[in-house]
Write a structure and sequence with these properties.
alpha+beta; two-stranded antiparallel sheet; 2 strands
Length: 103
Amino acid sequence: MPAVNSKTFKEYELKGEERLDNVDYEVSHQGYNNVFVNEDPNRLVPYDALKESVKEGKIAEVLPTYFTTVGVRTSLENAKKFGQGIAEQLINQGVDAVLLTST
């Protein structure tokens, strides 16, 4: 991923664990204090809470991937394309609900 002016979004596979480990995941963001999220990536992508909700029967399952892009200096035109592309993929995978997190 570029640091600014993104031309695309990415879909990353989750490794099937019960939570995200900071050895495998990190956030890079200009103008955002990354320390707390890099200590525990579940603070930004609450994968651990979602997996717990599955165990408790509150939700059926969690998609084994997540989507990301860069917002800094990304054009509105590209951002709209990213949103449409992500939405299409989620619909095609039968996703009923989405969590949007932001830095």
